Amino acid sequence: RGRMWAYTVGFTVLPHVGGFLGWFINRKEIPVWYEKLKKPSWCPSRKIFPVAWTVLYTGMGYASYLVWNDLGGCSSKALVPLGLYGAQLALNWAWPPFFFGAKNMKMALIDILCLDGLAIGTMCSWYRINKVAALLLVPYLGWLAMATCLTIRIWKDNPEEKPGKSE
Where are the membrane-spanning stretches (predicted)? Predict the structure, then answer.
C-alpha cells in the first residue's frame, strides 16, 4: 500500500515521456516547416498544444493506473484493456515523427486514423472495468477528433511534392 503512490505517479507520467520526446526531436521543424503550411482558420494556436497535451496525457495516464489497479496489476485480465492502451499510446507517440520529422502527411493521417480506432476501443474496454477511467478519456477522444480533422485538412490543402517534378 505504501508503494501505490509510485505506481500512480509512474502510470500518470508515462504518456508524457513519449509526448516530450516527440516534441523535443521535432521542435526545430515546428517553427520552420509547420508554420508555412496552409491551415484552416479553426486550427488551434501553437501555444495551446503543449497545455492541451499536458492535461490529456495526465488524464489518460491516471486512467490507465485506475484500470491497472482495478484489474490487480499485470494480470491476464489486463492484457486486452492495457494492450489497447499501449498500442494507442504507441501510435500517439508515432504521429509527430511521421508528421513533423518525415513530413509524411499521408503516414501521419493513416497513423491518426488507426489511433482513433484504438483509442475508442480502449475507452470501450475500460468502461466495463472503471467508468471514471473511461470518462477520463473523453476529452482525449474529443481532441483526437479535432486533430484528425486538422490532419486531413492539412494533408488535402498542402499537396506533397512529388520527387523529380519541378514547376
Answer: 6-26, 47-66, 78-95, 135-155
Instruction: State the Cα–Cα distance between residues 6 and 9, nearest whole angstrom.
Output: 5
Angle at 130 between CA 128 and CA 136, to 5 degrees: 115
For 1-157, CATH number out of 3.40.30.10, 1.20.1260.100, 1.10.275.10, 1.10.150.120 equals 1.20.1260.100
pLDDT in tens, 34-90: 889 999 999 999 889 889 999 999 999 999 999 999 998 878 888 899 999 999 999
Task: For residue 86, give the DSSP letter.
Answer: H
Rounded CA gap, 151 and 59, in Å?
23
Residue 110, class by beta-carbon neighbours within 10 Å (0-12 exposed, 13-18 middle, 19+ buried)?
Answer: middle
Radius of gyration of the chain (CA): 17
